[in-house]
Amino acid sequence: DRFTDKTVKRESGKTVNLLGLTPLDFSINGTAESIRAFLEANGYTVVSSWAMGSTLDDIRESGRAAVNLVVSYAGIPAAKKLKDLFGTPYVTGVPFGKKFPDTLLKALTDSAADGKDRVPYMGRRPGKELTLIGESVTSGSLAAALAAECGLGVRVLCPLETEAALLDAGDRIAPDEDDLTPLLRPEDAIVADPLYKPICPAGSRFYSLPSESFSGRIFRKEIPNLIGTEIMKGLKRL
Question: How far is residue 154's CA from residue 87's CA, in Å, rounded to a whole number?
Fold first, then answer.
C-alpha cells in the first residue's frame, strides 16, 4: 500500500517479482543470487526482490511484473496484495535440484498467460521413505525435487505457520516437539535442521539441512545452496 506505484501497468512477457526472499530462509550462502540467476538465465527480468537485493525504487515498480514467484510462506501476503492491486498471478516454489526447476518454469509461463495461481510442487507421490521437517514452501519444493530425482515418497512436517493449501497429501503441520515426536519412526530417513536430531528416534537416518529460521547462525557455514544441484549430494549425513 505504501511503496508500490499504483499507476504502473502489469506487463506481458517474462517479468517477475521474487517474494518471500528473506535472510531467515535463504541466509547468505548464495541461494538468493542463484534463484535470480536461474530466472535470468531462462529469459526472465526480475523487477523486484522482496526483500533482499532490491531498492525502494525497484519495489515501487513491482506492478509491472507479469507473474510473482513466492519462495517462502512469508511472501504469500504480499503475493495476495499484489494480485489485488495489479492482478498479478503467483507461483509458489523454489527451483531446487536438477529436475523440479523445469516444472517451476512451466508454471511461471502458464500463470503469466492465464492469470491463475499455481503451486507446482503439489501432487507428488505421498509416502514416508523420507521425512522433511521445515518451512512449507521450501520443504515442499525440496520434496518435489527429491521425488523427481530419486523417485522417493516424501512427506513434509511443518513446525511453522502456513496454509493448508501449501501442504500436499500426507504432509502435516506439527508446531512443537510434542507434535513431531509421535510422527517420527526409527526406520525413517529424516532431513531437518541439526537441532531436531535429539528428538529423532534412535536408528533413524538423519540428514542435516541447517536453516537460520531454526538454529540461527550456529550452522550458517554449513547451509548448502541447493539451486540447480543434486539434492542428496548437498545434504550431510549425521
Answer: 34
